[in-house]
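Weekly modeling sync, notes
Attendees: S.R. (lead), two postdocs, one rotation student

Agenda item 3: backlog of single-chain predictions. S.R. asked that every request posted to the team notebook include the full sequence so nobody has to chase files. The rotation student volunteered to paste the first one in as an example of the format we agreed on. Action items at the bottom.

Example entry:
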Amino acid sequence: MSDPAKPDRPWQLDPAMRMPFDVQVLSSAQLRVTVRPEALADSALIGKESYEWAAGYPGEVLLDLSQLKVMNSPTCSWIMNLARTLPAMRVTVVGANQRVRGILETLRLDALVNIAQT
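Predicted structure, as returned to the notebook:
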C-alpha cells in the first residue's frame, strides 16, 4: 500500500507543497508547469524542493511562462536548477513574451532549455 503523504511517482509535486506554479500531467511523456505571476516575489523558488520534485521524470517538461510579463534573478535561477535536474534539453519554454524571451536569451538560458517560438 502506498503512503498517502508521498506522491505515486517521485517526479510529481507533493500537493502539500505551496509553490507559485502548477503542474499538469499531459501524458506519460509530458508535463506542463505553469508559472504564476507571484513567482517573481515568492521565496519558495529558492529551495531545492521547488525543482528536485522533477528529478527522474522521463519525458519533456513544458514550462509555461505566459503569465509572466518580466523575469527576475530568482526565477531565472529556478529555471536553471529545474533544467539541471532533468536530462539535457528536456525543458521547453512556451508562451514567453518577447521581453521574457529576450531575458532568457541574454542570459544564455537557451543553452539549457528549448525556447518555443510564439
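Discussion: group reviewed the output briefly. Residues 1-7 have pLDDT under 50 and may be disordered.
Action items: rotation student to repeat for the remaining queue; S.R. to check formatting next week.
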